[in-house]
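Most newcomers find our protein records easier to grasp once they have seen one. Read left to right, the backbone structure tokens trace the chain's path through space. Nothing more is needed to start thinking about how sequence determines fold. An example says more than a description, so a record of this kind follows:
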Amino acid sequence: MSDRAEVAVGTALQKSAEKVAGVGNAKLFILEDLTSRPISVLPEKIAEEIPKSEVTFWATQSLPGELVARRGFITLAKKYARHGHMPNVTPLLMEQGMCSDYNRVYDLTHKIYDRVRCAKKIIVSNNIGTDLEAEFDPGWRWVPADGRYHEKGRWGNLPEGETFTAPVKVNGKLVTNLLGDWFSEKYGNFKETLTFNIDNSLIKLDTISCQNESLKKELSAYLATDPNSIRASEFALPTNPELMSMPTIGNLLQDEKARVHIAFGDPYKDETGAPWKCPTHVDMLLEHCDVVVDGTKIMTNGIYVI
């Protein structure tokens, strides 16, 4: 699945797939040929084709309101196939993050996963004001997103490289200059940092501060979508070593594999076991972090020290 904005990526994926499956055995669908954008539900044609597939890709530009439809695609794809999810993918990401050494990604992912999967408390801070304390439920799962999806039902956001879970409680102050979902496409790395406080996992809406009034207004509306839209729903550590050594590019799909990030909204219930759902999910990138896991520092200024 692709769209007109990222048809170059979709075409490249189709050609590569045909080298494995044979010419004619990889189908490329363009969203705008099937329905108008933004979509709120999957086009019927796509819902019919997924059960016939062994591997699926979603390689499109992200638009406001499409998250629920993308989640529907993932849910159906997991029943029949292996899935590569690539919202906001670009040719640059194919040339950078997708060309990473995935043996190194796998090794670092599982090293960090082994270190944090039983963590009770993680403290994150940086030099621009972030100061967060996250607590974790031992019954909720950490996910090692290592890029190796060899069995039916496995999937991930490509380019890959992170270890994540849903936190049971987050408190403190968050400062970011890159958001996920469609904000990444529209705003990229914004110069004016966005700041707010988190109390018992909930964003304190009256503390949101950003000189970019348009961004502040649109984010505030997004966070009002559902009662859980302001709830901390993902805590993730980066595990793509090549991307971690590079500057961010303003595209969250890649940059989240290189930096610590926290999301609000849906907690990927099927993966983490966290007991709620939400129609929104927005990641927030944290630069130059120090990370302390149960009293032991594992990252200094964005670099692992273990």
